[in-house]
Amino acid sequence: MKTPSTIQAKGRGPAPVKVSRQKPSPPTPSDAGRMGSSPPREAMLDSALTHLINFFTSLKLTVVCLVLGLVLVFWGTLAQVDLGLYRAQNEFFRSFLIFWGPKGAGWKIPVFPGGYLVGGVLVINLVASHFRRFRFASDKAGIWMVHLGLILLLLGQLGTDLLSRESGLHLREGETKNYSEADRQAELAVIDTTEPEMDKVVAIPQSILMRRKEIHHRELPFVVEIKKFFLNSEVQDRSANTSSPPPSTQGIGLRAEVRELPHTTEMDRRDVPSAIIGIVTPKGSLGTWLVSEYIDGPQGFTVDNRSYQVVMRPRRYYKPYSLQLREFRHDVYPGTDIPKNFSSRVLLQRPDSGESREVLIYMNNPLRYAGETYYQSSFDRDNKGTILQVVHNPSWLTPYFSCVLVGLGLVVHFAMHLLGFTFKRRTA
Amino acid sequence: MKWFWKLLPWCFVALFAAEIIAVMAPKKDKEYHVREFARLPVLLNGRIQPFDSVARNSLLQIRSTGDLPLEQVPSWKFWHHPKKLKATEWLLEVMTRPETADTRPAFLIHHSELLGELKLQDKGVEKSGLRYYTFNELKPVLEVISAQAEKASEFKSEQQSTFQKQVLKLANALSLYQRLKVTLQPEGIDNFQREVAIFKDNLGAAQAVAQAGDQGTNQNTAAIRKIARPVKEFQTMAKFGYPLIIPPVAPGASGGQWQNAGAALLESIRTGTIPPASGSYAAMATAYRQQKPGEFNQAVAQYREWLAPRFDKEIRKGRAEFYFNDVKAFLHATIIYIFALVLACGAILTFTIGPSLSESLRRSAFYLVILAGIVHTFGLVFRMVLEGRPPVTNLYSSAIFIGWGTMVTGIIIERIYRVGLGSLVASIAGFVTLLIAHNLAVGGDTMEMLRAVLDTNFWLATHVVVITLGYAATFFAGLLAILYIFLGVFSPLLSQKLRPAAAAPSVAPVEFGKALSRMVYGVVCFATLFSFVGTVLGGIWADQSWGRFWGWDPKENGALLIVLWNAIILHARWGGLVRDRGIMNLAVFGNIVTSFSWFGVNMLGIGLHSYGFMDAAFKWLMIFTASQLAVIGVGLLPLNLWRSFRTRTVPPSGTNGGARVPQPAAP
């Protein structure tokens, strides 16, 4: 399918950009006559393909994508002021298109390519032009390294976006936990507490609570109905002069008021979800409950002589090992309250391997263990508890390789350029 | 005449070198050994520093100046140096003779709305459009100020109006001033030394009473009565005293043992002994208050002798930092940069008219840039040693380091091309960045301790240094590009060939414009390297400390913008989308991108949807951006309006810098 000129371009001929300039001259009638009747279609296909290849391998596309990227980053940075970092990140960088619509209107139109689109086209452009334009030659070694490193970096970040999971671990001194909790996701846990030695937990993640009206599960002899779900809310004690009916017919909801709040965009705040759920057994409804992250303790009910509890809590990720906080330290510079260091001494225990050791987690020195990394993130005001951030990110190493590759590549390329330039000047 | 042109550069160097040597040479104290006192180590902001630094930084926060002029001199009488109080002299006055200090115009208030609110428009002294007030003048409105400040502090700093910010600043200055007053002795006591002595004599008795507790023996009530008043005063000093001036009694103990004067005296009730330092400082305070230079000098010398064997490290730190403050390396570097700038301009302007003059000026500029660079480097390295840190730890030091990086690049470029451009850019950048640094220093201590996550010399030395070099290189390319545009539009220079005499012997004669364009390309390459590696290193640091490589945080995005922009310039050039002139315009835009990333992202929190929008720095950023856009506008003028290119009728094909002259159609 390849025309001789493309093959030549792939070899050591003139740069393909120039080829494309010469190429588009339409076939003359005499050409068509010589080639017969079917070739024109093939030629058209061929030229379309060449156009496509030229498009995806052109340096113009690179520059256009880079400029779009620049505008995107700039815009996305300014947008953080209004949207907050988290939302701006999702709308601008973790998206294919940026949508815009007038305030209050129900519709939105795409107005600008998002991070995935720009990044994706850049990667295609990069890979394609390498296959098409560059030879494996010593004087291109630098360029190869730079672009390989960049591809690695971008793919690594894509991997991080898709595969990484962040959660938090709050420990008071002396406390032991074998799970971490999601930062911005809740779950509805329905706990069967009948057996004294073991609880059976059915955890329903927030994403399902938001979507579904009814939840059936084979472990549960009843249906959980989601009457209402508030992404962000506030729960208060019910004041005496409230006229509206209580939010639920059972549990704490009888004494409480719930108010829906707008989705928060500030960086240091998070949504507190609440829901009103109904429990429906085959024999009929047991009533409704108000569950919320505001409400600490679980609320109980009984079905077929089995006791159950419901609780809305941050989503939990369980681990095959546990961490116990031995000591938290908050060091300050002498005579000031400027923090010098935060550190947590924790005991790591793993029952299945018998491992048990103490580790010190402090600023710039996280604990990496079993595919997860624990960072010193925050602490309780009384300095008796620590908050560790737990990150599971399989592609965390890619930036390290990429940095070395690109850095070396740039040095090699510019050095050769510079040396060549100086050499030329000396001989001239 | 030839020998004259050869000699001239060395004359300039000798002149400025003599000035530098004079500045660096040790100086003698006058009647009072204030300089000796200024060297004494104290603990403040978590670090050991001399009294001199306390004084300078306090005066900067209160008055935005490094000293306090005592007489009014009209600014046109520039040869007449007004008498002034050096920072430490002022501090001693505040600490021991507050009645006099209260009559000095030490408080700068320049916000007109605030002045109106306080009804102060007609009071104070005015100098170059700024108004300074004495503490006595502010006394009647102290309550108004603190009430307004309290109101203002309810807002987050991003939401405060300029008025509120200024009120808070004034309230802080006043509180700092009043804290300084009770640092050495209680306010207005004539003989503090005697009071401490009485306290000491009655200490044993008082202690016995304290131990006896409620058992109610009335024997020693006289002693108690005698120390009741001092104890009350010590409590005030303990509560408000600013720097911690009394070193721990047992040296070697962890540094947290330093105390302020009041706390140390109060503690002596428990321990039964008064720390020697307290006695010495009381003696100094009393002698200075009673204007007895001999006794003051003796007390300082005695205290130093006591310190020497115990706190050697602290004494050396105090002396070194005093020397650093006193030499003012960056100020002198700035002055030399200005002269070099003028000479380099002269060299370029006389390039065609008087070759020997031009060459002589060029050499002068080059040598002066090197001299300024040495002074600049001296200051930079001295700071690093004092702090025990890599060069960049905050915005202030980043400005100094950007200037340093540009200076070094400029010297290298000048060494290669020898046309004065390197010197010109180096001196502009050196001068401007040091000026920026000077303005950033007004906030107070520039060697503050680093908060937990930043307390890592490894990352400060790698990520921060590399990325700052990236800033420096991008600015350098931008400055060269501005020169290209101005020289091209307003002078015929760009199309001139460099004379082999002026250029290094190895340089083949090239066009001025071509040479510039190569410089810009080379510098952009380095800018790409530094900004990319620096940015990724920053990501890796973030991964080490927060668990994510990239979080789209404004500062990270700012760094990414620079990388993207440099990549755009390089790819546009490789792709043939732009030629010389286009690259120059892109490089000028790089200045905007870099300044946004350097300063702009820090303002995002403040700006955009708050009243404090028009902060001074933001205003300057906008002015800078506008000026760069204007330069790009000039750069976009059609080439036949460029003086460098319009004289040429038939451009040789393919050589002219950026000339988009219609080429004859290919046959």
How would you describe the overall organization of this protein?
Chain A contains 10 helices and 18 strands. Chain A is an alpha+beta fold and 428 residues long. In chain A, the strands form 4 sheets. In chain A, strands 3, 4, 5, 12, 13, 14, 15, 16, 17 and 18 form a 10-stranded antiparallel sheet that branches. In chain A, strands 6-7-10-11 form a 4-stranded antiparallel sheet, with no helix packed on it. In chain A, helix 5 runs antiparallel to helix 7, helix 7 runs antiparallel to helix 8 and helix 8 packs antiparallel against helix 10. The N terminus of chain A is likely disordered. By secondary structure, chain B is mostly helical. Chain B contains 26 helices and 7 strands. In chain B, strand 1 and strand 2 form a beta hairpin.
Task: Give the key terms.
heterodimer, A: 428 residues, alpha+beta, ten-stranded antiparallel β-sheet, four-stranded antiparallel β-sheet, 35% strand, globular, disordered N terminus, B: 667 residues, mainly alpha, three-stranded antiparallel β-sheet, two-stranded antiparallel sheet, disordered C terminus
